Amino acid sequence: MRRFLAYSMPVLLLFAWLPQVLTRDLVTFLFFTFIFMVLAANYDLLGGFLRYMNLGQGAFFGLAAYIFALLLQHFPVFFLRLHPLGLPVAVVAAVVATAVFAFLLAYPLFRLRGAYFAVVTFGLVLVLQQAVLRTPALTGGSLGVTLPPQFYVDVQQAYYPGLALAFLAVLLNFAVSRSRLGLALHTIRDSEPTASAIGVDPFRCKRLALVLAAIPSAMAGCLFALFLGHLYVETVFGMEKTLLPVIMALVGGSGHFLGPVVGGLVVQGIDLGLRYGAFPVPALAIFGLMLMATGLFLPGGLLSVLHPRGRTAR
């Protein structure tokens, strides 16, 4: 842990300094990169340790974002009276609600494996989309939900919490990889009957991993809502929030705690180049080709070449 913190401090200081020299657009771009890194790192708690293709990580992100925004929209006076604790209280409420949702979801979800698990988690995002659209009196439906202007933050205020969240998400993966939980998850991945035979409770460990993966994503959703000020269904439950974190983790190296960081920088860097290049190309098409190339020629991701022994297995 000390070595991890020693190596990460210079990187954190570099990213903390960048807003002083970059344009507002690039600072905003980095903020969104941090949000996607959080989702990618949280995806890897299941995808890297258990090899579960979790396509529903964006569901926790979007659910917390909507709960947070609705609390501030419907009870603005209450949270303003709690100043300066109003926003933290709303965040805690949204994160706790999302964690409880993940806890309850584990019971039916972990009865599935393989393609069934991936399809059901992807369907979870679609179910939440429809739940928002079918309850316009509460959520605003297709018109979305708007936060009171008193709670708005600009990109300079959102940047540093985003950086801190990305760091904490990577630190969580590192801590789990060095813990008994990480060892138990790897044992479950290799053979669930063997894990049960040596005293590991597979369901309890998988449920804990799902809840741990939901919490930072929920916090990122709250910060995202605070920065945007107005939420639409497509904004928080879109395909970008579902597929891009998976692509980042796989390209960087699923199972390595730095995989989401490397993958996030590479994928977002390519996206930035395509967006402002001389010949704009649809980013999702390029990401699809990258995913195919990674699966065919580099199944362990970029870090399997740079650091082949740095995976989370012990």
Structural summary, described in words:
With 314 residues, the protein is mainly α. It is built from 16 helices and 2 strands. The protein has a two-stranded antiparallel ribbon. α2 packs parallel to α8, α2 packs antiparallel against α11 (202-228) and α5 (86-109) packs antiparallel against α11 (202-228). The protein is globular, with a radius of gyration of 19 Å. The chain starts with a helix and ends in an 8-residue tail after the last helix. The relative contact order is 0.17. Mean pLDDT is 87; it is low at 309-314.
Query: Can you tell me the overall shape?
Result: globular
| Main sheet: strand order | 1-2
Instruction: Write the element-wise H/E pattern from the N-terminal end onward.
Output: HHHHHHHEHHHHEHHHHH
Low-confidence segments: 309-314
Proportion of residues in helical segments: over 70%
Reported for the largest beta sheet, the result is:
2 strands, antiparallel
Compute the average pLDDT. Answer: 87
Strand coverage percent: under 5%
Helix vs. strand class: mainly alpha
* Computed Rg: 19 Å
Question: What's the N-to-C terminus distance?
Answer: 15 Å
> How many β-strands, per DSSP?
2
Total number of helices? 16
